[in-house]
Specification:
Blueprint: H1 2-26, H2 31-37, E1 41-54, E2 57-73, E3 77-80, H3 82-85, E4 90-94, E5 100-109, E6 114-119, E7 142-147, E8 155-168, E9 172-178, E10 190-193, E11 198-205, E12 216-220, H4 221-229, E13 238-244, H5 245-250, E14 257-264, H6 269-273, E15 280-283, E16 289-292, E17 296-300, E18 303-304, H7 309-321, E19 326-332, E20 335-341
Keywords: Hydrolase, Protease, Signal
Signal peptide: 1-27
Protein name: Trypsin-like serine protease
Length: 343
Amino acid sequence: MMVRWFKSFFVVSSLVLFSVISSSTWAVDVSEGYLKIMNSVVVLKTIVHEQQVSPQGITEKKTSELGSGVIIDPKGLVLTASHVVNLAESIEVTFKTGETTTAKVVSSSYLADVALIQLETVPESISVSSLGDSDKLKVGQEVFLVGAPYGLEHTLSVGNVSGRRVYDDLISMEFIQTDAAINSGSSGGPMYTTEGELVGIVSHIRSRSGGNEGLGFVASINMIEDLLLNRPPSWIGADIIPIKGELARALNVPHSQGLLVQRVAKGSPAERLGLKPGILPVQIPGAADIMIGGDVIIQVGPHPIFVSKDGFLNVRDYLSSRDGPLQLTVWRGGEWVILYGEN
């Protein structure tokens, strides 16, 4: 009886001891890292206008959207996700202290889903997140995210790096996969190492339920530096999708390739230029819904649109080096139209 009791005691004691050792070995306290960065994380509230077809004709719908961002410069530059601000008519920024200000988009990479905005006023209470090196991240390494899921501002979630996803399409892109919780309102929020170094910006999730299922994707900070900080592209204020082949022919575009305008932000360079957005949603088999009825951009300056890496680079280099008004050639309602603007 004594031997049986001793064996049971030994097993229970071993399990408790293993649990304590495992917890102390694997659990990482990120409270110091959070305290270090919390005043650099902001909540973004945007107003977006959209046109749509209704029985009454073309109508406008105004919606309010929520996202997050992080201050990376003492002069008030904030990194966020492009889909949070790219079409925003207005952006309200709320700080950890409860103070608010407005902001304007200064640069955006729609393909990589990252954007840079400028605060109109910069409170003294802010802090700045220091950029880390996302190339040093290892699969299995613990990281933490801060955002405003469902409006719960400055919420922290902890997880691990689950993988790296590199895409070499029109531009080279890298997303860090993580199982840290990401929900609506988290988009644009920062991802940190446990030491509080900024290594990414929350982009999107893959989910069948619409909520967090542990498949989150974060734009890597090294990619962001290359695409957005070292050579920032201009903000146009339009969502566009590349079209070619059968889709271009179905839309009666007299060019093999182009850029179909989906939506245009109120007050943006795209609106001032006169770009027309799509007005009718359609479902393309094997693809997401698209908006048709808007302009198809055929040429940017002297460069015809080609849906390829070289074509994209030609257009990017033209936009960054041109001297004079921007010129776009679009296909609209069966006619060629040339648009001019300062952008």
